[in-house]
Amino acid sequence: MSLFLASVGFGLVTASVLAIAAVGFSVQFGVTDVINLAYGSVMIASAYVAYFVNQLGPGVSIWLAMLVAAVLGALLSLVINKYVYAPFQRRGMAPIGIVIVSLGMLLIIEYTIQAVQGTGNLSYTMSQGPTLTFAGLILSGVQLAIIGLSVVFMVGLHLLLRYTRFGKAMRATAADRTLARNCGIRTDRVVTLACLLTGALCGISGTTFAINLGSFGATSADLFLVMILAAVFLGGPGQPYGAMLGALVIGVITEVSAVFITADYKYVPAFVILLVILAVRPRGIFNAGAIG
Amino acid sequence: MSQATLFYLANLLTYGAVDVIACLGLSMQFGVAGISNFGYILFQAAGAYTAAILALPPDTANGGFQKYIGGWGLPFPVPLIGAAVVGGLIALPFTLLVGRRLTGHVAAIGLLVTAVMFNLLVTNFVPLFNGAAGLSLVPQPLQNVFNPQSQTYQWVYGAGAALLALGTYFLFRRITESPYGRSLRAMRDNGQVADSLGKDLLSMRTAMLVLGGMAAGLSGGVLVGFITLWDPGAWGYAETIVLFAAVIIGGSGNHKGAVLGALLVPLGFEEASRFIPSSLGPPGMIPALQWVAIGLLIVGFLWFRPQGVIPEPRRKVFAWAQGRLAGPRDGVAGPVTSPAMSPPAGEAATPRGGAILSTEGVVVDFGGVKAVDGVSLSVQRGRLSGLIGPNGAGKSTLLAALAGSVRVAEGRIYFEGQDVTQMPTYLRARAGLVRTFQLASEFKRLTVVENLISAVPGQRGDTFRGSLRGRRYWGREELAAIERARELMERFGLIEYADTYAGNLSGGQRRLVEIMRALMAEPRLLLLDEPMAGIHPSLARKIGANLQQLCAEGMTILLVEHELAFMDEFCDPVTVLAEGRILAEGTMVELRRHAEVVEAYLVG
Amino acid sequence: MSAEIAGAQVRGAALATELLSAGYQGRPVVQELSIRVDPGEVVSVVGPNGSGKSTLLKALIGVVQVLGGRVLWEGREVTNWSPDAAARAGVGYVPQVDDVFAPLTVKENLEMGGYLLPVREVPGRITHVLDVFPQLSRMLSRRAGRLSGGERKMLAMGRVLMLQPRAFVLDEPTANLAPALANMVLEDHIRQLSATGASVLIVEQRARAVLAISDRTYVMAGGRCQLEGTPAELIASPDFAETFLGGARRPAAPTGD
Fold it and tell me: Is the pLDDT score of B52 beyond 70?
């Protein structure tokens, strides 16, 4: 029983990391119409930048480094979308072509990191904080911080999308770009800002992912990308709230399966869920029809 | 040349052949049939594993240091055959993902995920696959008879592998250049339209997944027999991207391109890195940079040269046929009768009059909005009937429902007395119920004449088996089909564009191609959706006269058109649809006197 | 026709075209069409399917390329401007389909309509729009995608009304609406828009109904203007119904309808 509760605890942490990543992925897809398979590699690139900042001196906190990672994630996402995907889209390339381009970008980013860094794994210098026990869940301070951070981002994103002019313009642009332009919304600028925003989420999720993993390498996010896809497709692509829910389901199922099956196969249920969704309802289970 | 160099070259020959076979399979799936199989590498891994366990002795041998199932110790060539068979068999469940429903990038992601998942399962499952350690000491073919360490053996192995690659190349080319291959390319260019012309997409996709899987499996089998190792780590999903890079760079839709790509990318990269001193940079830098280069090549080629180094050749079928017909008449071509503008054989015998198609209360529901709301209609045999109505009246939707492209919520559709309400589109097309589309729907990367002959039903060469039997089996039929196409093209004034890609024509010309293609399908009932849009008025009248002639000869046509002058001249009877319901039917003269109809047009 | 005479014809007009040709891929669908809408006037364009009505509107607000002639807005040439420039300049365009943001709520749709306004003015404008379309105030938090056809059209008009445009350009506002609803949209909503003092240019297929609310009407067929006049003149004309039921020249190219 306690093992189960512990796994639920881990699940919540994984779900928190996944939620940040999946929401970023899903909103990015909604606005740009690109299934960006290079997303995981941008996460790792950001995690690396956080590592270098973290190693600058003994006093540099990983949480500060995370901010720098967010900036890098934002810039990298913008550059990829604006100078790679968007030109291909303007040329009228089919979605499948863009997916192949994004696979190419995945190789470029991931292995540039590996070329610089080598194949070894890295770890941040940080304290895990005090261990806390709460209702049978045992979590370290860092894990709690990750959960807290994720909750803050989800609430923040909710407020942004619902109550700010920019957030609404972003949803309007995702829903119908032509009509948004008719309303006088400068959609190019909205897309740019949305890429920066989702890129920042990507950078932060990359860093929290690396923290949660303990040690990470250039290809560490390859499997995590599939979990992101599972969460995103479960919630319906382009749906931020669906992605949150999808992340919670996939994250908890994955960690709980680590107990009941074996740790080696913990990802398998998520994959099977994704395949079933793709085959049965590719628009998502929690999808109410449009961006909510 | 030193011994080492010779050894190296023999190795190269085998590796090259393995890559060529694998790339050919992917080229068939991706380049020809348009299936983006991101899980391709899985098939190679499965083939390799099968070959290994078929060749290995029981796992208690060698002190039982590795675990696996089977271990039958079977002799050459059983492991190789088994590799190809299993590679093809495991493709079958994949057809669930790439069936009729799920296509394009969503299916591609499903395949990618499947490959990642299986790699994960295999790497960690010891009882079946010996986990991440993989299998080693796999016996080589005929190793009891010859010495595998000898250079002669290496060369013979390489030559054998190269022969297999060559065989695969010729087999695949034979399929691709057949009428069946043309159907595959038609499916790649526009699946929905191919479906409406009677092509069975599910069966074609299944065949290509299995065939490509067999090639992948075979390549895995050849590889494992040479290196004697099976390492699950070597079959990560990135390897699939390498093969995609090879096909894209070499030239997709073209097997020569696949061969070139195989030699340039997987093989070339592997070998080039041998000449770079490994002391350069930190450990692992050179292999990492190779991956970066592959990524750059994919993006760069897709931008600067999407057609690849060797582009897909334009197939000048018409010029070929003219050459054959101009040559000495050896009887192969024979005097070709051309039923181009006459009804299918046997049709003339059927009695005129009576309904060829009828509907009872057909309803099409788009999420609560009834686009077609209880239409009971009957189309009389041998007539050129018209369907008119204001915008949004449901004309195109009704046509789509008749052809099976949209689902009918209520009501029944009878064609030639048979209830076809639940019949899939391609079967309706085969039964003689053929539609055209309102939007441009030519197969862009097929020439005009290929577009036309792709629609000819029941071609001998348009089945997988027929395609294997070669041109001698289907060539004559092909010439006859081209001859029919020639007549149509002359009639519609497109003969000079016969060997031009349909995608390069003007809008009006493309519409003509679609009409001609539909006629080539020998329909009993032809449903035309605004065929005259974008066509010059004088030509439209000529087409109208032709259509009328066809109906006089026994064909039936139902035509949606918003130019009422055309209806005046050619169509009788004309049915008026408004708000999803039938308002009136009669000649245009009668309809004009019909207050309700005038009102519908004025009121909407 | 010389440019000077054409110029004289459009003087004082709110929105006008001079010998306008427009179409897709360089092929004209609308040919040498001259229309004018005076300030405060309700002008309709009617005609059978494929006559080029929608293309005319799209060319007016810059969605479809103008191939020849000019578009004038308040005496200024604006040929081939962009839809957002039109919105900024005071021309409110309601497309035939895709006219609201389905995932956004009614209120959010109105806010997007007022995107160009200073933020402080938005609530006041929303109140004003709700005065014009009081039915909308009961469904402010509902998603636009869940509205009925008539409600949706009302929202689309309200969204455009947010910017207080001096001209409304409406593309078949009654398409896909039941007849009773269509009459309500035309008789009530268009009148409400017109009551704001703006000019209205409306394209319709329901000729009879739209004539009832128009000051002037152009009848299009085959991409050209066949008839022009006040509703009374047109109804009296023997050619009017005939234009709809054939006899007209066929268009030379695919249309946007």
Answer: yes
